[in-house]
Amino acid sequence: LDYQHVQVPFEITLWIMLASLAKIGFHLYNKLPSVVPESCLLIFVGLIMGGIIYGLNDRSPPVMDSDIFFLYLLPPIVLDAGYFMPSRPFFENIGTILLYAVVGTIWNVFGIGFSLYGICQVKAFRLQDVSLLHNLLFGSLIAAVDPVAVLAVFEEIHVNEKLHILVFGESLLNDAVTVVLYKLFRSFCEMPTIKSVDVFAGVGKFFVVGLGGVLVGLSFGFTAAFTTRFTKDIRVIEPLFVFLYSYLSYLTAEMFHLSGIVAIISCAMGMKRYVEANISLKSHTTVKYFMKMWSSVSDTLIFIFLGVSTIGENHEWNWPYICFTVIFCLIWRALGVLVLTFFVNRFHVNTITSKDQFIIAYGGLRGAICFSLVFLLPDFRRKKLFIAATTVVILFTVFIQGMTIRPLVDLLAVKRKRESAPTVGEQIHIRFLDHLLAGIEDISGHWGQYYWKDKLEYFNSKYLQKILLREYDQPKSSIVLLYEKLERKHAIELAQAGQLGHGPAHPSFLCSAFLCSSSDRTVITDQKLEDTPNPDVLDNMQEILARNLYRIRRTGPAYNRHTLPGDSEPTEQAKEILILRHKSL
Amino acid sequence: LDYQHVQVPFEITLWIMLASLAKIGFHLYNKLPSVVPESCLLIFVGLIMGGIIYGLNDRSPPVMDSDIFFLYLLPPIVLDAGYFMPSRPFFENIGTILLYAVVGTIWNVFGIGFSLYGICQVKAFRLQDVSLLHNLLFGSLIAAVDPVAVLAVFEEIHVNEKLHILVFGESLLNDAVTVVLYKLFRSFCEMPTIKSVDVFAGVGKFFVVGLGGVLVGLSFGFTAAFTTRFTKDIRVIEPLFVFLYSYLSYLTAEMFHLSGIVAIISCAMGMKRYVEANISLKSHTTVKYFMKMWSSVSDTLIFIFLGVSTIGENHEWNWPYICFTVIFCLIWRALGVLVLTFFVNRFHVNTITSKDQFIIAYGGLRGAICFSLVFLLPDFRRKKLFIAATTVVILFTVFIQGMTIRPLVDLLAVKRKRESAPTVGEQIHIRFLDHLLAGIEDISGHWGQYYWKDKLEYFNSKYLQKILLREYDQPKSSIVLLYEKLERKHAIELAQAGQLGHGPAHPSFLCSAFLCSSSDRTVITDQKLEDTPNPDVLDNMQEILARNLYRIRRTGPAYNRHTLPGDSEPTEQAKEILILRHKSL
Question: How much is the pTM?
Fold first, then answer.
């Protein structure tokens, strides 16, 4: 037995396997996930596993490594979130989202930090050694809403799109603020004196970190789109580029201390439309499927590890500090949302209702990012207290808030997400209104969102598409693309229902399948019986035979390692059928 | 700049990116890959990169780590090979393949080992310090044909299926022999005296290693199939199980010193038919695509690393030893193939022609497995000589043999692979003959391959399918499955060619698309004009409207994180359409 040799991959595979099996287990028993969010169940599994490890080994189970979390577990989830981000509601609410993410997070950091410092001044609590800077540092890591936890809960409760994007967008974009403030306070903690220059540098750094992340992401995204222009002969590795470039954007951003989350999201959103147009349908299915799979596994692993890491002896318990942390987290978030929304509502026609505000405040879940950041703190006396407080806040938000948010949404009758996708008619109207509003804004000289959107679209079709798309000659309008997609779907449905008529096989079945009325059918059959040697009918039969012979002649391409069976061939064949048809007509 | 932090994932991603871009590069310039095999080009790229690294750093570039090769790069390729293995030719020729793999490899090991020992006895060559055991050890690592190199070359030359499976099957199954002999001789080298017991133990070990691998693989394969029975509600993680279980089978086999390659191949072949039936169509596309992608990247990386590792100062040059190694490798393989084929041909009606024998002997390419094994040798004086000899043999076989085998195949007019897949008619006939022969064998009491195949099929349908398949009630015959697949393909083609008629839209287009003869069409139109208020026609229109309204009513399911849009819905919808149709009829 040579376990040492295979230990690393073996254990990784086993953890992933455990996560996947846990997921299957929950879904087997249908009622459970509808009451308790999956994230809670997974943390619970983690707690049990941690308990078992603790019981068997008699020492604390291994803690989730912050490096593993930030380098391997977080990127797939954020990539998935960015790639499937509904871009329209996101950009429509980008101002509000940024306000919540930037001002709201800063508000929370300082609010929590200063009020906890106030608590530390009470002598009875024996916390006088926790300085203001340490409290602010703790505030900077505990204030940020966690995208992983938010996703896990909000995707199960189906609130309306705007509410979802406000909470989720905030949780993603506050990464830039968190990174800056966390690093700023951490370096302040190690400095002997703090000059005012450093504070201003910190403010400037925020723009560098955020905008730098966007720039890094977009440049990798466009490079990815450009690369997929040249993959026509080697379809099999197309999906790889989507993953490689997004991951590189994340790593590069992290390397330069920029916001990796912002980078990978810009990368995914920037490349999506071009990559989708360049790669084959099967590659695209693979990309989507693998992204979902990967993020789902990462997310499962994160919650299990979170549970496992909770067990152990790295906590220092101090009732007042921990309780007040939870209370301040709730209060400052609620206040922040109220104040910010007041300003937002003054400038918007489409206001955020008070129910929505409550859900935004209540949906501020904390998760694995706080947890990883608290372990990354430099060692000092009260680190274990911070770890304990963070763990309690995470468990409180995920369990108490996560489990009660669904009943609350039901109780308040918060506007839900519409169940069906918009119809083609609606989409056409939306687009029509967009053009109309862009025109009105242009005439009135108001540079609003429609004006900029129109300009961006112009720039895109004039320059970007020419560089990034393979087949630029006549870009298909999205209506045509949608039509093609629906046709394809419809065709598959027909084939699965056995309704796709192969002309020659059963003329009567064919007619019934393709909706010739029954009376017409009788006429056809009658006429066929009457004049069988009709030259038209004979021609037609010849055509049928020719086409079917064609189909038999080319049932499959030769096997080749770098292509999948039936990779590029269908379109070609369909084209040739079209040519044959034109000839015969 | 914090490069240290992201170094490991960053460099891995960059290497994979380089490999992928190199692949795109070759395919952009179309003429190159048709003359030079891709493997040669990649080694060449590696040589250049190694030269650059050597020139810049002034020390040997890093050598491909044997652990990385065996744990991470080899499994994807073997998994791909096993999963897409054409099972019929493989099992039809399993006897011949095993003979080549086991007896042939042993023959080569001892042939090369003893004759090189003979060369070492010549005083002029100054090689007297290389013992017989060291020569046999070297023989055991240099004798084995490499599956990666064979795949890379043979997939481009398209020889007939039997020839391909003989060479490729041998290269896969000889792993068990290589593992046993290599470890045996290595432990002998470290023992002071060798008892005859040890030799017999080695022979016994061969069966343990080979059959153990098969057992480990099959048990993981069946577990994988069993697991996918329960993934109906969580389709997104289905592909994961295919990869996880196969990888676990490989690691487990390696852990117990069994043949990992044999294990992963049995796992893939064992699970394939059940997994395919259990998982959704999209999951299956993803599995296939990702397997191809992964193996393609692994294979590229292996050849590039092979090139990079060649450059450097870890070689000891000895002309006679190296030249004689190449010559003996060629001679002993040719002799082995001739002798073994002589016996094979005596027992088979379908003989292996002399042209095929030549290609089998000439196709014995060596590759990265030898290379990794030689670096795993314990340190002794002549290790660098062995490394040099191995490198030369690999470069010789990949470059000289790999580049000349295509012209030789053309010159000898070796029977090629048929370009098209077998037609349905052929498949039915083949199956019919199988049953017939099984019956004849049963009556005559001869336990041949058809008898066993029939028994296995019986066992499979009676027990295995009931345990491993989700929907067992009425297993679809493969003819029905093929029909469904063709229907689906046809439907997509029709949709892409715009020939799929939506009944109500254009009655005339509909008819022309679905081959109603032109004369019939006129009659329909005439009749419609004549009696518009015909109740039948009205009924029919109602039906059309009802069905189309149905389609509009349900354009898309609500977004959910764990499902992909349109995941399970089409079949359901198609079913409902069917019910509606039955009602209306």
Answer: 0.79
